[in-house]
UniProtKB/TrEMBL annotation:
Name of the featured protein: Membrane protein YkvI
Keyword presence, Transmembrane: yes
Transmembrane segments: 7-24, 36-58, 79-99, 111-128, 135-155, 175-195, 204-222, 249-275, 287-305, 311-332
Keywords: Membrane, Transmembrane, Transmembrane helix
Source superkingdom: Bacteria
Amino acid sequence: MWVNGLKWMFLIIGTMIGAGYASGRELWEFFGAESGLAIILFAVLFIICCSVIMSISYKNESAHYLPILNKLMGKKLARVYDVMIIIYLFSTTVIMLAGGGATLEVIHVPYWLGTVIIGGMVVILFLWDTKGMTSMNAFIIPILIIFLIAILLMFQSLKGFPIEFKINAQHNWPSALTFTALNILPLIAVLGAIGNEIKHKGEIWIASLGSGLILGSISFLYNESLLQVASDIMLYEIPLFAILKHYPYYMMLIMSALLWLAIYTTATAGVFGLLSRARAWLKGPAWLIALFLIAIMAPLTTFGFSNLISVLYPLYGVLNLFVLASLLLYPIMNHRSL
């Protein structure tokens, strides 16, 4: 139970920590000043949402996300959100590929070549189908978390830990709703595809609580660190580099590598969600379907990483509020079935 629970926990975190999150760009777009309460609220909402999605997925033994949507909002609306999830996963995976290109630019790899490399590695991973993705997450994500927390704590120690939490200065709390909503659809897509692999209800609680607490803690520490370099963030495509400029060059190289791997895990999660749904129409090996999807996405990466995030992410956050409301109300309306 514990092993599988941790495996799903790392799958959830791997889906979340991608180009937008690990780089700091996503956090900066939604949070910033007066956001401590918003981040705590996000962690609570995230735990509830993950547990509800996984419970429905487990009960229905689902192999893709459509049964989750049917339970949450009925078959008619589920068709609309089915299309929306396909568009969402497609566009956000494009953002991951763009992020992979932007990250490798720090070591002077051309942007176009960086996107080709990450796209090729996504396809290679699907030679092992689902097992390849979950094994990779279980290996990469703990390393990324340890390094990211270490970097942020060292940065805060350099600044003398100027973290303050004033309850009367927490006016940005509504951003917790849109930030949580933004990340709901990829979670439904990925967790909906593993319902037939969850063996015990305890796995759901380990994965939900663990991922929520870890992501909430990192988000708070990361946001406070970004506030210290707010004046420099506009100079960087990736805000994390505004923090890393205080460290030796080799630290930037290490974090660039780990950031690239985080982007890679989220790109694979996006392709996995699309692939699990596409198997209803397309036949063939997973890697071939993944190659087909990546080939369509590649030309769209030319729009640029930060431009894609600043336009698409807030828009999706608002559109997904209905899904978030459905998830939060589901335990109240269907408490006997959970």
